[in-house]
Amino acid sequence: MSELRLVVFDVDGTLIDSEHNIVAAMTQAWSHMELGVPDPADVRRIIGLSLVEACAALLPWANHEMHRQVAEAYKESFRGLRLLPDNEEPLFPGVLDALGELDRAGWLLGLATGKSRRGVQAMLDAHGLHGRFLTIQTADDNPGKPHPAMLERAAAECGIVPANVVMVGDTAYDMQMARAAKAVPLGISWGYHSIEELRSAGARMIIDDFDNLAGIADSLVKDGPCG
Questions:
Q1: Active site residues
Q2: Rounded to two decimals, what is the model's pTM?
Q3: Could you tell me if 165 and 183 are in contact, meaning their C-beta atoms sit under 8 angstroms apart?
């Protein structure tokens, strides 16, 4: 491979199945704040945004201070759920094989997620993934999706032009971020936004599994970010 290339993964809904914990933690946070019960479908839609932005989307009538308080309550609830002995956020099928395949093919690997850095470290601990990702961009260090900063920073850290970056994600926010950064948006079908939403947001391709991800990424980069 003549040029360095980078595949950046979203986390929730792309690498790990975290929907149950996210909905449960948000439900507990709303209960703590005496806000009633959130619609699980509404919570599912905001997965991928940074936490305060997600709370603002769920509670558009509330002020910023309440959004911040709900976000803090959510973090406390999520930490508590993570400590439960039966808690798990499993990897989706094919993740480990895909990471190995990409590594052998010479791709650099990264993460770009609305999770906090603490949440990412817990995920890496749980699945033995430390050292697999050269660049890790979180909501603690960057503007939230769909702002392009996460991908721009990931590319800069790796010395790679954005056109040689493939963003793999499950939400419209991931696809919009990739387009804004002039990277290649690659959608997956098993996550938290519909295939139609991914296409509307600019996904160059939508895959149903991680088989031959290295080959798919290679062909998309050769075609360029705009096809």
A1: 10, 12
A2: 0.92
A3: yes
